[in-house]
């Protein structure tokens, strides 16, 4: 059984903890999406219930975001750790809570159907993972990137054209600086 699928029978004591790993393919992401992962995604989750109608989920995800450095385009694996929270509730509990659709989305409340015997964490984990995915990755804080004129990778080689080529659009500002 997948770590993303929790059997409700495991929650007889009122709380349950689990941990494990899974591949990003389990999240059913679009194969052409920009979200790439290196290796397995690690999950640790805790689920609590008091009434067997509402289940409070909290957990942590650890993964390696894979991408190209935004400055030099070298492939980079950046470690990411994120936490998530959500609520799974049967219809009876939702009637008591009476949340609006906006509140249900904002509070991360996922409805369960009558007779369900499992909690599927896939949607909650996917949403948390994608919202916390880095906008960009960078190989190092001091990455120098490429020369905008000749395209030399400044991390590997020095560039001779850097001081020779000037952008004509900045000429007036350079003249102002020389006057001082």
Q: How many individual β-strands?
A: 7
What is the H/E order?
Answer: EEEEEHHEEHH
Shape: elongated
Helix proportion range: 10-25%
User: What are the low-pLDDT stretches, counting only 5+ consecutive residues below 50?
Assistant: none
Number of helices: 4
Spatial gap, N to C terminus: 73 Å
For the biggest β-sheet, the strand order reads 2-3-4-5-6
Number of domains: 2
Derived structural class? alpha+beta
Mean pLDDT: 86
Strand content: 25-35%
Largest sheet: 5 strands, mixed
Radius of gyration: 25 Å
Structure report:
The chain has 180 residues and is an alpha+beta fold. The protein has two domains: 5-132, no CATH class; 144-180, no CATH class. The chain is built from four helices and seven strands, in the order E-E-E-E-E-H-H-E-E-H-H.
Itemize the secondary structure elements and their pairings.
Blueprint: E1 5-7, E2 15-22, E3 37-49, E4 54-68, E5 75-89, H1 91-97, H2 101-106, E6 109-111, E7 118-120, H3 122-132, H4 171-179
Parallel strand pairs: 5-6
Antiparallel strand pairs: 1-7, 2-3, 3-4, 4-5
